[in-house]
Amino acid sequence: MKAEIISVGTELLLGEVVNTNASDIAKALKEIGISVYNIDTVGDNPKRLYEDIEKAYDRSDIIITTGGLGPTKDDLTKDIVADFLKVDMVLDENEVEKLKNYFKNRKDELNEGNMTQAYFPKGYEILDNPNGTASGCVINKDNKIIIVMPGPPREMKPMLKNYVIPYLSKLSSKYFASKTINVIGIGESKMEEMIMELIKHQTNPTIAPYFKDKSLTLRVMASDDDKKTAENMLLPTIEKIKSILNDNIYAYGDDLAIEDVVCKYLMDNNLTVSTVESCTGGMLSSRIINISGISKCFKSGYVTYSNESKIQLGVSEDTLQKYGAVSEQTAIEMATACAKKSGSDIAISTTGVAGPDGGSEEKPVGLVYIGLYINGQTYCKKLNIVGNRQRIRRIATSNALDFVRRTLKMPIYEIN
Q: Same domain for 405 and 351?
């Protein structure tokens, strides 16, 4: 089956709202083996929306729209769908009652604009919306399916997960099994090059690489009439990928950030950690602190941006004068001083040239040192990162976390 996604809203075209809905829907459809043929964004314009639906109806089996279900006069998605299908709009009394109760509980009145949200194209099935006033609907007509959902992601995403995907899954006789492989420490082109032979000869299962800010992922997917058979089909391909990428893989089973895996290991093994940052300026500690439960392990985070603050922490002034702030020696002393001051088992330091200014021939923009202290032992990693200031800081942070993973020889984390 082929699907098309139409996002409705002038605010999307103006760039005032980022369209995350299309991405979320496309990912969810991929999981159940439905190919997305086209993704479109259209403003609150009846003529253009009608034309988009008309084209999508000719090309695809499923049309999914988001947006245009509000109480204002420019919210016309359901009306345009009804117009295109040549069916009447029908008042749903159950939806009227839900709206009445909704506004009664808020000590407000149900107005005429909100009443329009209780009308649906004839032949509809309701998609409940416990997070807002605009229920969605499904119209299955002439072997074509049109699914209409609200625009706000906090309303759309639960509806997609709880109603739309289960509904569409029943239409396929195939079972789709998939597993995500999380990769770090190599670039996207290098990863693709390493597994290119597998990608070239893929049939079932398939391998799809995805490149993200924090790490890389590979999605391995197999399909079969039998659930267990589909799941077992994944295993040989995953083993082949593991033999190629080796310790660049840090997790299986879900889309996990490197901090998820590192922090879980620290918590499971009762290891305390602290950070001292220069070029990353708190980004490292922020990503660690973002993990729930990490308070049992995370002790302190220092940002020592100036040489004076590094000296106050415990870095030798002689080291700074002889080797400079951006050096292996300074990175190690930062980590050691951090561990002593915080009393942590592990301390991580970052120091580098984030740019765009401040680089030199000897120490160019993108040069970063990561220092690591683990129970009396010190380690250092040198990086040369290409990109703008934010990318350099972000990549340095991910590599710092990965350096901890590799040094502690953490096993690959797996979600079954």
A: yes
Rounded Cα distance between 352 and 384, Å, is 10
Cis amide prior to 356 (ω within 30 degrees): yes
Tabulate helix, strand, coil % of the chain (nearest 5).
45, 25, 30
Which pTM value belongs to this model?
0.77
Question: What is the residue type of 356?
Answer: P
Say if residue 164 is in the same domain as residue 200: no
Q: Integer distance in angstroms from the first to the last C-alpha of the chain?
A: 28
Residue type, 277: E
pLDDT value for 213: 66
Give residue 318's pLDDT. Answer: 98
Same domain, 39 and 105: yes
Q: Answer yes or no: do 81 and 97 share one domain.
A: yes
**Domain limits at 345?**
258-414
Give the C-alpha distances (Å, rounded to integers) separating 15 from 5, 10, 12, 77.
18, 9, 5, 20
The whole-angstrom distance between residue 154's C-alpha and the CA centroid of its chain comes to 15
Residues of the chain with confidence (pLDDT) below 70: 213-214, 416
227 with 95, same domain: the answer is: no
Q: Are 397 and 349 in contact (CB under 8 A)?
A: no
Secondary structure class of 185 (helix, strand, coil): coil
